Amino acid sequence: MDVTLRRWADEDFPLLEAFNTPEMTAHLGGPETAQQLVERQARYLRLNESGEARMFRVDVDGVPAGGIGYWQVDHDGREAFETGWSTLPQFQGLGVARAALRLVVAQVRSDGRRDLLVAYPGIDNPPSNALCRGAGFVATGEGSEPWRGGILHFRTWELDLSPLDLAGRMPVLDERFTGDALDETVWWPHYTPHWSSRAASAARYHVDDGLELRIDVDTAPWAPEWDGDVRVSHLQTGQHSGAVGSGEGQHRFRDGLVVREQQTERRLMLPHHGVIEVRMSAIRHPDAMVAFWPIGFEARPDDCGEICVAEIFGSEIEDDGGWVGVGVKPQRDPRLREDFEKIRIDGDLTAPHDYAVEWTPDLLRFFVDGQWVKSVGQRLDYPVQLMLDVYELPRPDGHRDLAALPHVLRVERVRVFAP
């Protein structure tokens, strides 16, 4: 299903008529008159032309399916954009509105004129309230106002798109990788070695005014028994696993995993809320992927969710930009749901960029170069360990591009700020 937005045009008036049924307007006080529809159409076109609003038709595989937009408002004395949407009945329940709202949020982010997006769905409209919650909006209150001859009772939802503000905050970790040795009071240079061994999972790295994590021609797969021909060079800031032969260990990435080597527990740098940031350079090669993805330390098995600050596949980097994956992955935490999204970022991703998350008990806000890119409204409330790595992913035919090696992830710094 391909959901796209098209600028609202003269020929889209029949969509307004299709939206104007008792069923479609049940949460809005009922249908408008024919004259009110004509005025609404003219307003959409006029505000689009003036730039005061951006109104769109929503298409599914090229077929008109709904409408969505955003327009200028004053929200409690602050300049904001308001958004609203309608989806035709035959397209409801398919994720169309969710995809359209994501596209509108991206439009607002690119617009840049205002850094607050608000929505006011009716309290008696569960799907629209759930849509706001799932898109990272925060419910901030309720209200009522006269509307179409009645009273509309609404809930206020806010999506804060403001930049990351670190003014006056001092980091509890400001790792620049200086000197000639890795600080192993902070970093453990192995990739979940309990599923394999310390020898097989050992990182290849160089420290000298920055960190280089490297995959070489002779780098072997880290755990062929469980992960095939995947090669990785990785640092983490904690280690927890059970006895040999048990299934207890961090990052249970597939069923049936068994601990193969006993490990000493390490509690090195385990943030619990605050800001976590990395400055790193991605690798433009179809076999490479780099990532910074704190995961639960797993003192309790369910405390295993992932905060993906940045996941960048070399196959998704182009001359003028690329795609950066950010969000929350539940892994095996039953309290979380996956809310992960690839965000288009302009510029050379092989140059250094800052990737960060601002993490509070019920909200995570993600940033690239200090600019907001995504919010996730979920509760992830336990310590995490930092996970920083470069992967070489196997091709279906088993061929390795040896001439392109080594793959080198360059990291300038990692910072952690307390809540």
TrEMBL record:
GO terms for biological process: carbohydrate metabolic process. It comes from Microbacterium telephonicum. This is RimJ/RimL family protein N-acetyltransferase. The keyword Ribonucleoprotein does not apply. Transmembrane segments: none annotated. Keywords: Acyltransferase, Transferase. Belongs to the acetyltransferase family. RimJ subfamily. Residues 3-158 form the N-acetyltransferase domain. It holds the Pfam family Acetyltransf_3. GO terms for cellular component: cytoplasm. GO terms for molecular function: hydrolase activity, hydrolyzing O-glycosyl compounds; protein-N-terminal-alanine acetyltransferase activity. Residues 118-419 form the GH16 domain. It comes from the Bacteria.
